[in-house]
Amino acid sequence: MPMSRPPYPPEFRRQMVELVRAGRTPEELAAEFEPTAQSIRNWVVQADRDEGHRQDGLTSAEKEELARLRREVRQLREEREILKKAAVQSTDQRNSAASLSPGVSNSRVLRGRVFSLWAIRSRSSWVRSAMLVPLGRY
What is the pLDDT, as a whole number, of residue 5? Predict the structure, then answer.
């Protein structure tokens, strides 16, 4: 796997874009400075999008928002999977409790389910807030 370098600072990118707009070619700048000519061209295109001169792609702000929303969706899906597993475990516990003591009413079984989910909730604080919403108060 090739080694990657840290991204160029935004100020350096702005200066390269200004030099291209002043009349220098990306190839000249690539020979003088470190980035490739294609990187410089990409920076010019992105600057045009951000300034509203091009409509063919996402602006930097839209890209940041999209990345943030994708992270949030990924986290919510993980939390949902944990809740599904917890519900399956509590159903197994409820079924075993009902088979052991046939006189137990459904309300006690539901309370037992809540207690088992509370135990799961106490082990992981980031699941805690997600557990409160679907369970409600019994």
Answer: 83
Where the chain has pLDDT below 70, the residues are: 1, 94-138
How many other CB atoms sit within 10 Å of the CB of residue 68?
A: 10
Asked if 43 contacts 13 with a C-beta cutoff of 8 angstroms, the reply is yes
Tell me the two tokens of residue 131. 């557990």
Q: How many residues does the chain have?
A: 138
Q: What is the pLDDT of residue 126?
A: 43
Assign 3-class secondary structure to the chain.
Answer: CCCCCCCCCHHHHHHHHHHHHCCCCHHHHHHHCCCCHHHHHHHHHHHHHHHCCCCCCCCHHHHHHHHHHHHHHHHHHHHHHHHHHHHHHHHHHHHHHHHHCCCCCHHHHHHHHHHHHHHHHHHCHHHHHHHHHHHCCC
User: Torsion angle of alpha carbons 106, 109, 114, 116, nearest 10°?
Assistant: -170
- The alpha carbon of residue 47 and the mean position of all alpha carbons in its chain are separated, in whole angstroms, by 25
Question: Distance (Å, rounded) from C-alpha 40 to C-alpha 37?
Answer: 5
For the entire predicted model, the pTM comes to: 0.53
